[in-house]
Amino acid sequence: MVNEYEKEVKERWGDTDTYKQSTSRTSKYTKDDFAAAKVDQEAATEMFVIAYGNSYGVKSEQAQSAVVAHRAAISKWFYECSVEMQKKLAVMYTEDHRFKAYYDGRVRGLAQYVHDAIMAQ
Predict the structure, then answer these.
(1) Which domain holds residue 107?
(2) Residue 2 within a domain
(3) What's residue 21's pLDDT?
(4) How many other β-carbons are positioned within 10 Å of the β-carbon of residue 93?
């Protein structure tokens, strides 16, 4: 099964160790593995939703727990996600309309909150 974004991802990051690690891991995954990865990612997103919905600041324990869960899910399923890499992802969450739509589709303003919480660590 070819992901519709695979070509773009390969063009942007194909020469990086992160891409190679992710490709190596995911090449062995079953449909159930991908479903489990999605559950972990959604759980981290839900932690952001709860923190944001309860007006916790981006430096709060609740928001920072979501940041840690987000990074842990990526590290568990795809590649070792450093704080530096996570911050690069955070920029994409506000600058790439697809990521922004994902987060803001959950709660308006969530993409910026996730960005700010990740940058606050």
Answers:
(1) 30-119
(2) no
(3) 87
(4) 20
Q: What are phi and psi of 109, to 5 degrees?
A: 95, -5
Q: Is 44 exposed, middle or buried (0-12, 13-18, 19+ CB in 10 A)?
A: buried
Handedness of CA 119, 17, 46, 97 (dihedral sign): positive
User: In angstroms, rounded to a whole number, what is the distance separating the alpha carbons of residues 71 and 37?
Assistant: 12
Q: Give domain status of residue 8, yes or no.
A: no
Residue 55 DSSP label: T
The residue ranges of the chain whose pLDDT is under 50 are: 1-2
SS (H, E, C) 3-38: CCCHHHHHHHHCCCHHHHHHHHHHCCCCHHHHHHHH
Q: What is the pLDDT of residue 1?
A: 42
pLDDT at position 4, please? 65
